[in-house]
Amino acid sequence: MEHATQLRSATAGAGVLLEARELSFAYAAGLPEVVRGASLALRRGVLAALIGANGSGKSSLIRLLGGIARPSRGEVLFDGVPLRSIEPRARARRIAYVPQASAGVFPLTALEVVLMGRSPYTSRFRFENERDITVARDALAAVDAAHLAGRSVTELSGGERQLVALARALAQEPECLLLDEPSAALDLKHRAGLVRHLGRLRDERGITALIVTHDLQLLDPAFDQVFAMRDGAVVAAGTPAEVLRDEVLAAVYADEHVRARQAFGRTFVWSE
Amino acid sequence: MPRALLLLALVLAVSTVVALWAGYAPIAFADLSGDEMARLLFFRLRLPRVLMAGMVGASLAMVGASLQALFRNPLAEPLTLGVSGGGALGASIAIAFGFGAKVAGVPFIFLAAFAGSGAAMLVVYRLARTGAVVMPGALLLAGVVLNFVAASFVVIIQYFTDYSRALQILRWTIGSLDVVGFDLIWRMLLFLVPGWITLALMARDLHLIALDEETAESLGVNVRRSERLVYAASSLIVGVTVAVGGTIGFVGLIVPHAVRLLFGEDVRVILPCSFLLGAAFLMLADAVARTVLGVGELPVGAITALAGGPVFLWLLRRQQRLAAM
Asked: Is A262 among the domain residues?
């Protein structure tokens, strides 16, 4: 099988940070499994994407990888250690997860939201200290959102909220970022900006990131690794150039009209 | 945070003095040393009543703030979620069947109201939740309908029980804080203190859950466990306050929102501040209820509802504006 050989090559390279082994998951007993035997190996210090059709299990898989949900079968290894053996707050200091954009109800300021990312470092009855506030402000600055600090999150645009959520994740000072469709609410310019931020975080801080996305145009050349899901399993993995090919995408999306072509040093994907 | 608490402690102290002084017969504090009658009145009636008002107010406000964070719904509070209604039904059943008795020293009516509140909260929550999402509108609708159903049952029970018990039940449906001596206060504290402590321990988790559940989980919060603890503590607290004072509405709405306006949106600040301000608020509301008529008194629940209704509507309007943006 093609994807099996590519998985091995991924594992054989630089150290693997996050590994899924034959994961299965259903939202409740008796409901159909949305993840079925999914395996992947995310290399340390890469920017990676998880793609696939709607309902293919991407969001569920990334939640399993982040420890938000427990697999019914299989195992997640983080840095070689079973994820479930890591205490949740210790996990939160190493893996940050950003769910699909939610508007929020209470008018917290952006800085207050970003400071929540410090909660894995603060004890139950302490408030954030000076250093926490510095880290939070730095995190906002790292995504060019320092000017939002005092604004109420309920008044921000979708794109600005996404930046605040990303800054909150960065405030956790994680090794690994897991983002669920961060570009869904963003316009063209902000999508490119987001990818630029993620690339910079990888280059400057060595942060590993896996993002769920439908935005296939973004992948080549910005991303290092791409995983493609279908029916709850990872069916293809490799570099963007390896995955973004007609026959692979046709299988992933069950659509023989998908085309991928290279031009201007990038890969363009469309369905005819 | 310390400044906010200090300020509210001061407000609470002033409110306590005012509430102790106010009444059908204003008490001259100077008389307490000499006048035997004044002392009796003060220590057997006035002081317990003011304390009771403080405890109930603190409880309802703290539960309101917790439920708003847990459900990410600014309009949630014991009354709007049907939790008070469930408690009142439980209490009514206990009275109707003459279960004034104690089980292991605990008034049965406490337990019955606790069971009623807990059941109501579970029903409302189950109805409003689909998968991972709690629909804010559905939550409140379910709460309101549940209140109606509970109230109908209370009326039916009143209809079938004898006159004296029916009158006793009627008291619950509006809310009043009559109390003589400290017996009941000690017994209430036995239940309320663990509830208060549990909610205080959950403040940090609730602060994160108020943003969204998945983020909270990813930050190391065991959301399911926190949720259960908040349910249990809230049902316990509301059950006990309803068993004693009836359904006193909107305290859990007015007070946390006043705190939000004053001190911002951090749940870790809102919870303790609501506790203090809630106590002050209900003491004063009860003082008004006791004095406004000159002779006789109004049920304090009527005062809080009069104040709370407009606040609810104002919040509703503000929510809609936010949603439209």
From this structure: no
* Residue of A99, A102, A119 lying closest to B208 (CB–CB): A119
A141 lies in the same domain as A117: yes
Tell me which residue range forms the domain holding A59.
2-94+179-244
3-state SS record for chain B = CHHHHHHHHHHHHHHHHHHHHCCCCCCCHHHHHCCHHHHHHHHHHHHHHHHHHHHHHHHHHHHHHHHHHHHCCCCCCCCCCCHHHHHHHHHHHHHHCCCCCEECCEEHHHHHHHHHHHHHHHHHHHHHEECCEECHHHHHHHHHHHHHHHHHHHHHHHHHCCHHHHHHHHHHHHCCCCCCCCHHHHHHHHHHHHHHHHHHHCHHHHHHHCCCHHHHHHCCCCHHHHHHHHHHHHHHHHHHHHHHHCCCCCHHHHHHHHHHHHHCCCHHHHHHHHHHHHHHHHHHHHHHHHHCCCCCCCCHHHHHHHHHHHHHHHHHHHHHHHHHC
Does one domain contain both A183 and A169? no
| Residue A87 and residue A217 in one domain | yes
- Contact between B220 and A119 using a beta-carbon 8 Å cutoff: yes
Q: What is the mean pLDDT of each run of 10 residues along chain A (272 residues)?
A: 43 75 89 93 95 92 94 94 95 95 84 96 88 95 92 89 93 96 81 90 94 89 93 94 90 88 86 84
Count interface pairs A-B at CB distance under 8 A: 76
CB contact under 8 A, A92 and B325: no
Domain holding A198: CATH number? 3.40.50.300
